[in-house]
Amino acid sequence: MLKEYKTISEVSGPLMIVDSVSQVSYGELAEIELESGEIRSAKVLEVDGARVILQMFENSVGINLDGSKVRFLGHALELTLSPEILGRVFDGMGKPYDGIPAIISREKRDINGLPTNPASRNYPSEFIQTGISAIDGLNTLVRGQKLPIFSGSGLPHAQLAAQIARQATVRGSNEKFAVVFAAIGITYEEAEFFISDFKKTGAIERSVVFINLANDPAVERLATPRMALTAAEYLADLGMHVLVILTDITNYAEALREVSAARKEVPGRKGYPGYMYTDLATLYERAGRIKGKEGSITMIPILTMPEDDKTHPIPDLTGYITEGQIILSRELYRKGIKPCIDVLPSLSRLKDKGIGKDKTREDHASTMNQLFAAYARGKEAKELSAILGESALSSVDLLYSKFATEFEKYYVSQGFEINRTIEETLDLGWKLLSILPKSELKRIDSKFIDKYGYKEEA
User: Fold this and answer.
1) What is the pLDDT of residue 455?
2) Is the dihedral of CA 32, 33, 34, 36 positive or negative?
3) Longest CA–CA separation in the chain, Å
4) What is the pTM of this model?
């Protein structure tokens, strides 16, 4: 039988203090019953002897300290699960958002999950095709990897996220592929964009979508990504390859800072709590492949860098935990490049493990390295030309400058609707390399130059 407590001593923002409590554990779910009979949810944030601090999922308006009651439910926040979650849209707390009745539960799981023993993980080694050349060709995503996208305020990361959700697939595999998409702290207009895009393109059939709006309580933002990851773990246990897209992690971190300030904790860098690294790791490290299991979880967290600062705590800590980053460029965005992926500072630390013969194509590694080198030199040539004029460039440097322009125009800028296979991406790379003299292709084995149709421009 559940005990009821009428010993609320204080309410401060999203926090409530209850005294004279016994047999309550950290993370346990609670119900707050107001005098009007309204029920609100909360979870245990801290236990100090007989005193408990609760974190409320709704606002605290209308709570009367003397007339309200608190019940502890004996379990943590859980998500109702079933294979029928595919094709559904939920809110940030796992309740139906699409107007369809709730699913019939096969099981319920604690959204906090359990840590994975590193020794039980398989090394990521299988290529995931996103259909985006700047990712597939140069910063390859590998199954089981955590590859974040670093964006800036106003850049089209929402469109890029939707494109990846639509197009991503595991090549050469008959195993099922699913997408779990969590939108954290977004506007109503963005929510409508994501939902309509998923439905219009048919991607909703293989997806589970969680929507947390900007006007929802900050505490709900902390639960939304954990709801998504719990759903992903369930689908992975069913043998599915699951791609998890979380956008926007910056909104999650802001909610973490807000709750930390309400608890009067000593702030760390830029006011964020000192445990933010650990908290982010509890999200990111739930991705991966487990030995002996067919399913896997691959993760793409998306975050907006405040003031486009890569050293800000959110991208900085994310970079430490994950295996690389895809960086969006404001300069390319102003040029009309879509998606505006800046390939030079971007990095996928596991790309070499997911490419090559029997995975993508045998010439992938060579052409990738040559494209990187040529684009870097082409950018240098363009900068030199801007300072000294084109007359200061050699004939070869002029070709590199032309290559950089064509590379951005055709390779990087493919729009948000084009879905390229890896073969189309590699063939396009060879076509662009034809701008350069054959003698400049120093990073490619000569047998590939002959085999894959390099034709030097006249």
Assistant:
1) 67
2) positive
3) 86
4) 0.91
